[in-house]
Amino acid sequence: MEERSLRITGADTSFINKITNTLTKLLIPTKIGINGMFITMKRNSLLKAFENYTKDTENYNQEELEKKYETAYTAYLESLDKYVMDSIYKKVKNGTASDFEKNALSQYYEITSLKEREYMDYKYRKQKYLLELDGESLKHSAKEKIVQKYQQFYVEKMDTLYKAILKNYSIKLADTTNIYDSTKEWIYTKIFYTLEEYIQNILTLKMKQGKEDFSGILADYEKFQGFTVGKLDTRDTIEKNMILLGLSRRLFTHSIPLIVAEQCYEKLLRDARGLVQDTKMAAKREKAYAILMNVMEDYHVRLLSTKVYWENPKDREMYKKFWDKYKQITQLKEIDFIEYVRRKEILFIKHDRKQMQTSKVDYTKLDCYYKRKLVDYGVMKEIGNEPKSQGIYHGLIRNKENRVSA
Fold first, then answer.
1. Three-state DSSP class for 74?
2. In whole angstroms, what is the distance from residue 239 CA to residue 147 CA?
3. Which of 112, 132, 254, 316 has the fewest other C-beta atoms within 10 Å?
4. Per-residue DSSP letter, 199
5. Distance separating alpha carbons of residues 316 and 297, to the nearest angstrom
6. pLDDT-based confidence at residue 143 (cuts at 50, 70, 90)
7. Closest CA to 366 of 283, 277, 294
8. For the chain, which residues make up each domain, given as ranges?
């Protein structure tokens, strides 16, 4: 009787579980429908509050309008969060979720995992995620008029969130304590990734709206678009990140202050130097060298030429001399372009060799490559020949004025 009773109980439990699972699957669409209606209500309230808050009028208390807008925004985010947990989570659990919903839940957990260790990053990225989720849903379900109305709010709010995210990374990068990894490579990666996301997803929408004048960055924007298709190698990635930094000097002046942008440029210089030094094939090394020259020029023109405060007065005086020579050389651009390129490269090489002397990285091979360039340009003379198979000159090289040992 005991054995029979156990069998019956087991059968009943299995039967009840099957019924429960079936009912859950049947009720999920209803739950999604309720959540969808709730989100629509909260979204409509938000858009109305946003319209009133951004409207140019003197008949209302601006502080009161802002408070109502923030309250509506909080309620809207809560409804989206509830949708993820009530609907998407249950669909994934019951095996009825689409690939989009599975990916959405995976991203949700990835963001929530930041809460304990990187709260500020979690705070801004969760908002961004929820807005992207609803924005993507509206594209496929809402009328064009509603989509356009939502995008007005979406672009402005996302613009604020991206600036907050970048400012948070800037604070971490400028931090001189030992709390974070001394190399801070992960922060550089996040900064460049976030900039790329913003250019692709938000700047494009802002340009379509036509409310602001982006003519000053149009050339860089078009260059960046060329790097959004196909697989990128290390050289392409360095060039793309250089363009992103150039755009950031116009779009995120306060979120990425000059001291942080300078660190990012120095990171790109290290990457470009390493690429030239480590590339063995002559043709690829020349292409890597061209990128290094571009990064140097971008760094000096876009950033250092605008730098006001220098910690070391000697560095400031040295740069002033460099900048005066650079301006003189640029006058040749329209007169003799070949001579302009030649003199500019010589100037950059000499300047970078001085910078490398204070670096902790061993740039011996790159320095030899630089000397080879100076020999080719007639600035240095070679004494003694190196075996052709080695590819990099290790013989004695003599300057026009002084003898030096390579």
1. helix
2. 35
3. 254
4. I
5. 17
6. confident
7. 277
8. 11-142, 181-301
What is the residue whose two structure tokens read 């790159």?
A: 366
Cβ atoms of 395 and 383 closer than 8 Å = yes
Measure the CA–CA gap between 196 and 12, rounded to whole angstroms. 56
Residues in CB range of 295: below 8 A, 6 or more apart: 238, 242, 265, 268, 269, 272
Residues in the chain: 406
Tokens of 8: 């019956």
Residue written as token pair 């429960």: 20
Going 232 to 344 to 249 to 220, the CA torsion angle's sign is: negative
| Dist. CA 332–CA 344, nearest whole Å | 10
- The predicted pLDDT at position 11 comes to 40
C-beta separation of 272 from 291 below 8 A: yes
C-alpha to C-alpha distances, 158 to 197, 203, 404, nearest whole angstrom: 11, 10, 56
Number of helices (H), then strands (E), in the chain: 15, 3
Cβ-Cβ contacts under 8 Å for 280 (sequence gap 6 or more): 391
Q: What one-character-per-residue DSSP string does 243-297 give?
A: HHHHHHHHH-TTTS-HHHHHHHHHHHHHHHHHHHHH--SHHHHHHHHHHHHHHHH
Starting at the earlier edge strand, list the strands of the sheet with 380-383.
380-383, 396-399, 403-404
Provide the 3-class DSSP secondary structure of residue 399. Answer: strand
Cβ atoms within 10 Å of 336's Cβ, excluding its own: 11
Are the CB atoms for 227 and 236 separated by under 8 Å? yes
Task: Name the average pLDDT for the chain.
Answer: 82
Spatial distance between the Cα atoms of 363 and 205, rounded to a whole number of angstroms: 43
pLDDT of 162-213, one tens digit each?
999 999 999 988 876 645 455 688 899 999 999 999 999 999 999 988 888 8
Higher local confidence (pLDDT), 11 or 64: 64
Contact (CB, 8 A) for 332 and 314: no
Are the C-beta atoms of 275 and 292 separated by less than 8 Å?
Answer: yes
Q: Are 381 and 390 in contact (CB under 8 A)?
A: no
